[in-house]
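ARCHIVE CARD
SHELF: 3
SLOT: left
DATA:
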Amino acid sequence: MKKTIRGATGVLEVETKEAGAIKVIKLKGQMDISTSDEINKIINGYLEQGGTPKMVIDMSGVAHIDSYGLSVLIFANSSLGKKGGLLKLAGLKGKPRDVFDLANLTRLFNICDSEEAALENF
């Protein structure tokens, strides 16, 4: 499924797919206050399906992330962990990676170089 979220400050393209029992969410664009609520809804919808959730969020196309985007990812990581599941971030680079490093969030997340690497190591 592909979806374009048009926010006040930018656009975020979202593609969701299944890789076996793993939900993959691929993001491209701006993950900020104006687009993060929709991402949160997508993640929560998946969590409501039950079972042991496994998720990869491919961040390779994300050009910008703000504190709202970070909070969505932190909440998702916590929620999956509480259900015995696992969240992996893939392709985190550039300015978004710098934000994670500055906020010391890299220690909280399982970060892989690519979507393929994330899927291989589940």
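SLOT: right
DATA:
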Amino acid sequence: MTLPSDTGPPPDVGQRPGETPPPGEAPPPDAGSLPDAGLPPTPSRPRTPGSDKPPSRRALVIRLLVMLAVFGFIFGIVLPAAGISYAEVVAAIRELTLAQLVLLTLVGILPYFVLGLVYALLNPPLVARQGTTMWLSSTAVANSIPGPVDMGLRYVLLRWWGIASEPAVIGTTFTGLADTLGRLALPIIAVFFLLIAGDVTRQLIVIAIAATGALALVIGGGIAVVRSESLARRVGRRAQALSDRVMARMGRKGPEGLEDRVLEFRANAGQLIMTRGGPASLVDVLGQSLWALPLLFALRMVGVPSSVIPAVYVYAAVAFVIAIMVLPLAPGGAGVPQLLYIAILGAIAGPEYENQVTAAVMLMWVYQWLLPIPIGWLLIFRLQRRYGGSIFKIDEGVAPATPVGEPQGTAPA
């Protein structure tokens, strides 16, 4: 599929501003008179993540030092103080056979490909291979450079692959939105599984009902905004008023033009969210759920039986931790998810299994957090050499490079 390039003169469609219609033709309708059923015209130039100033070297160093400090505090102080013996953790890992490590690796990298499909679904015409490349690259950046740098990276990759600026902005935004919705849906599924197993408390049921209502409100509100311009305007005005009040109490200036942003969302993203938003969110839920597999396999391999920690508890732990990590609790997610996994599963298993639980969590950590970093950065360096640019910046005035002989928009990763 060939995408139109956003360079060069635009096609001569309709009447340009300032021109009078030819004799015998009626003037075009005013934008405000368009019926509510149709989407308004798309803005001429969206704000792009890649147009932001890249982080300075000093800022990157500070972020990395903070992340390392969190790591040192959790693994050097908190876990040893809780009675974790790293000697026994290492001994449990060394007892794994080569066949077990191969099997663990296969289930450990499976989420890479499933979560990559989300990126491909929300950024047509990308293929699955490019989606996986984008997921690994952005995950590597997010895990090693705290801050929203990964969002800018996704935009730059889309531009390099020949996708125009406006669809690249929409795709970049919705990959993050689908990821957040998928994460928030996991606790609802976990409570459902616990309910089937007959081991769920009233508090968990209340949490599941509240989470379901929140998700339904967000998804239903998004669909309603896409369908109705008048509702989109009301939502934008109320969001602006609420933002102004909250920021005024904090003594800061809030964002401006929220009504225009909501209308821009409706104009640019309506078709994508109506056709691909649902499938992409379901695939993201599946991909996030698959992180329970390496943890479950690792627990069994290091000697934690199902009678001590059933599979449904493993899934519940993964679901709640992944949902909690939507909040920016630590730069790059440094150490906090592992601490939560050890605390939750250690409380279920008891002190006699705390070192085996820690060993299993560290094995999962390798595939969920550590391994994507070198793989993702290798892919980034390869792409930078291929396209001759930087992941931190792309010149909006220059067309994205496309290899000779390959149609624009289908360049391979």
